[in-house]
Each structure stands twice: as C-alpha cells, then as structure tokens.
Amino acid sequence: MRWMLAACCLFIVSAAQAGEPVEKLYATHCASCHGPDRLGGTGPALLPENLERLRRPEAIKTITQGRAASQMAGFSDKLAKDEIEALVGFIYSSLPYTPVWGEREISASRVLYGDPAYLSDKPLFKADPLNLFVVVELGDHHATILDGDKFEPILRFPTRFALHGGPKFSPDGRYVYFASRDGWISKFDIYNLKTVAETRAGINSRNLAVSGDGKTILVGNYLPHALVLLDADNLSLIKIIPTVGQDGKSSRVSAVYQAEPRGSFIAALKDVKEVWEIPYTGQTGKKKTFPVRRIVVDDYLDDFFFDQSYKHLISTARDSKKGHVLDLDTGKKVADLDLPGMPHLGSGITWDYQGHPVMATPNTKEGVVTVIDMQTWKTIKQIKTPGPGFFMRSHENTRYAWTDGFATGNPESRDTMTLIDKNTLEVAHVLRPEPGKTAAHVEFTRDGKYVLVSVWEMDGALVIYDAETLQEVKRIPMKKPSGKYNVYNKITRSAGTSH
Ligand code: DHE
C-alpha cells in the first residue's frame, strides 16, 4: 500500500515536471466544474473512490475528447498529451484528508426560514396552482415560477449552485424540493413563494425523491457514498444509510425514485450491481427503520426507468448495448432489451400503441429513438432522428412525442426538436426553435395543449408552441433554461413525463 502511494505521487510529480505543475493545470482547466478541491461542482467529484468504474485509458480519452451526454468538453486543443496524463494521475490520487459529511454536518447545515405559522395555506396569486411550471435556469442559477395559462412569470428567484435532476413536488403540489449537485436540498413553498428550509445532505449529490405520502425525502449521493432520509416537513435528518453492497464494496448512488404504487423508494447503486427497495409506508415514530431490500442485478444501473405500474424497472449501463427489465416483485430479470446506447436518466416515456403499452427513449450516443413493446419487451422500431438526444416528452392529450438532439453537441442536430407521431411511429416534423442554438427538454401544460421548449443558451429563451398547430405562441427570454416541470403532470404521474 505504501509502495502504491509512493508510486502514484512519483507519477504526478514527474508528469507535472514536463510543464506547468499539475495542481495549476487542474485549477485552470478543471476546477470551475469539478470544484477547487475535486469535491464536485457542475461536474462530478474527481476522487479515486468515485472513479472506480473509469479505467485510466478511458479517463485520458474523456479529457481529450469530452464525454457524451454530459457537459464535459474535450481538451485536445488546450492540453498536451503529457499534461492530460498528469491530470489523470492527479485525479486518481487520494486527497490528503477524507471529506466527512455525516450526521453532525448534515444537521448543522439545516436552515429554517421564518415561522411556518405565518404562511398562508392558500396561494398568494391568482394563477391555477396546478398548472404552474417550475423552470430551472442554469445560466445564472435561478428558478422561475411560471403561470401555465398566461405564460407569465410569477416569481424569479435565486437557487443553490447548479441544480440538477428533476425538482420534486409534494403530493398536493404546494411544495417543490430542489437538489443541487453540491448536495443542498431546498424546500420551496409555492403558495407563499418562499424558500422555507434547506439542508445539505451530501458533498456531491445525484437527485432526490419525495415519498408518495409526502412525508419523507430520500437523497442519493455520489459523495459520501450514502442515501440520506430527511423529514419532508422541516428537512431534519432521519437516517443515513451507507451504500455498501453485500460484498462489502462501497458505492455511489446512480439515482433515487419513489414508486408510489409500491409504497417504496427505489435506489440504484452505481458501483455495485444492486438495486435497493426501501418501503416508506408504515414508517412512523420509533418504527422508522427504513429497511433495505437488496435486489442483485446483472449489470450496473447507470440509467433506469419504470413502467406506469412500477412493477418493472428498465435499466441500462453506460457502456452496454443491452438494457434489462427487472420484475421488482420477484427480483428477477425478465428480459433483455435492444438499446444501442445509454439514454439519459428519466428520458423515457410511455403511451398506448395499437392497444399495447410501449416505451420510447432517445439515446445519448446515436440519433435514434427506440420504441419497445412493454408486453413482449421486443423493439418495435428504431426511429432515426437528426442526432443523439437527451430528453423525450409527450402528454396523454397530444399526438406527438417530442425529442431533442443535443446530447453530443452535434451542430447538425443540437438545434432540432423532432416530433414523432405516436400512432404511426414516423417522424412527423423537425422544428428548429432558434436555428444554430441548442434546443432542449420539453414539458406540456396540464391539458397538453401547449408545449414549452428550452433554447439552452446563456441568451436563451423558453419557446411556447401550440401542440396541435405547432405555431409559436410566445417566447420568454431566459438564461440557459434547462428543465421545466408542470405541477399537475408531475403529481398525477403523466405517462408523457418523468416522475
Ligand atoms: Fe441529468 C435528470 C443524471 C447530465 C439535465 N439527470 C437527471 C437525473 C439524474 C441525471 C440522476 C434525475 C432524474 C430525476 O430526478 O427524476 N445527468 C445525469 C447523468 O448521469 C449525466 C449524463 C452526467 C452528469 O453530469 O451527471 C447528466 N443532465 C445532464 C446534463 O448535462 C444536463 C443536460 C444539464 C445539467 O443540468 O447538468 C442534465 N438532468 C437534467 C435535467 C433533468 C435531469 C433537466 C430533469 C429532467 C426531467 O424532466 O425530470
């Protein structure tokens, strides 16, 4: 062990001697996204314990060419080969200290804003509270509460740094919970237009889920390797569950979701081939133990998705050409899926096609949307699109499924929105909301009559279309608007959106 450490340090020093010190290279090229101390920012933490599944040659390739389906650009024009090698040595070296974020730190971070007794239990505005959108603007770390009938902002407010993943609503739609990549969970009272509580649940977090009864929040972390349960009322800590596989190996969390029909949370581990189910029903008072049911799976779960009943979990690993279908009741795999590349988490949607439920997802490596019959688990069609996509959305009341083409930043496709006819499985239209500018992520109004699309640029906009005529209705300037979330579609778990 001592020898390994010494060898590792030697490698860093000698490679860095060729040019600038590696710490300086890191500070110049990497720190703004991955954090000055490698603990993560808009990009993930870069520590040996978080890079287990990335072999060094792959890490060199990633720094050189960039990483599909992330915001990681290639550095081949900025860094020499030996500088890239030095950086790889650096990120695989241990920190001089082990970052700790446990019970004490989580509890001490909690902030409560104001006295809940002064909060109104009716909205302070006239708009339909169920047809509001929460729009996340990544450009300057803000969110907007948007009236979904008039398409007028009600409030724009600052958020924590780099929100990521879907904000999640309480079952009645009054509260929205945000997660930032640096672990902050914020509870926002939509009726009172006010942040009411915040807790930092981790150093580098993935996403959060709100239990179907609205009582508990589950947060999945990359660092430390843990699941964190919070009380949804005041964000106080209930329990930390270290994510250690049954073989004793510690793991990051890929993502967490709540499966309301099952009364449980589902968490996927990223470095261990296990899915965990954690029931939240019947968890009261001293009985709040949140036991873990471990399900051993065939491959890592980098991305996953559920059918509408939450009986089946559909998953893929980043480098696999196959997806898997897991029966959550039996804990057994029931099918392999033909998926040409990893979709982004939560990109898939479902609808009825010729009397069968089907799921469809873009994928982040090739310009195809895969449509799969959810009874036979066979691929019905691979629909060609202009380029690899990140998100796909639709609505029960509309004939099209919309998907973007910006996963690889390809200039030919990144400004496109492809509309697939759900009845014919053909591409019906390709729109360019703003030619030459990235178009991303779609969400529908609660009635499915209008569609909101992001022009995902610093001088970007939210473009609102009539979902039937495809005419533009309004354009609202915004700073890199990313996800947008309709209260009604989310709390009713519309088949056309993520839950
Ligand atoms: Fe995301 C959702 C993981 C890159 C924007 N993305 C999620 C969720 C996870 C995830 C776990 C949670 C789903 C939920 O809570 O319902 N995202 C990942 C990755 O592993 C990946 C590929 C690499 C990474 O950087 O972590 C990745 N994601 C991105 C981006 O580069 C995007 C475009 C910009 C950003 O914010 O970093 C991006 N991800 C989003 C958005 C959602 C999301 C807008 C929510 C979509 C929704 O409609 O629910």
TrEMBL record:
<dbReference type="Pfam" id="PF13442">
    <property type="entry name" value="Cytochrome_CBB3"/>
</dbReference>
<dbReference type="InterPro" id="IPR011048">
    <property type="entry name" value="Haem_d1_sf"/>
</dbReference>
<keyword id="KW-0479">Metal-binding</keyword>
<feature type="signal peptide">
    <location>
        <begin position="1"/>
        <end position="18"/>
    </location>
</feature>
<protein>
    <submittedName>
        <fullName>Cytochrome c</fullName>
    </submittedName>
</protein>
<keyword id="KW-0732">Signal</keyword>
<dbReference type="InterPro" id="IPR003143">
    <property type="entry name" value="Cyt_cd1_C_sf"/>
</dbReference>
<dbReference type="GO" id="GO:0020037">
    <property type="term" value="F:heme binding"/>
</dbReference>
<dbReference type="GO" id="GO:0009055">
    <property type="term" value="F:electron transfer activity"/>
</dbReference>
<dbReference type="InterPro" id="IPR051200">
    <property type="entry name" value="Host-pathogen_enzymatic-act"/>
</dbReference>
<dbReference type="Pfam" id="PF02239">
    <property type="entry name" value="Cytochrom_D1"/>
</dbReference>
<feature type="domain" description="Cytochrome c">
    <location>
        <begin position="14"/>
        <end position="95"/>
    </location>
</feature>
<dbReference type="InterPro" id="IPR036909">
    <property type="entry name" value="Cyt_c-like_dom_sf"/>
</dbReference>
<keyword id="KW-0349">Heme</keyword>
<keyword id="KW-0408">Iron</keyword>
<dbReference type="InterPro" id="IPR009056">
    <property type="entry name" value="Cyt_c-like_dom"/>
</dbReference>
<dbReference type="GO" id="GO:0046872">
    <property type="term" value="F:metal ion binding"/>
</dbReference>
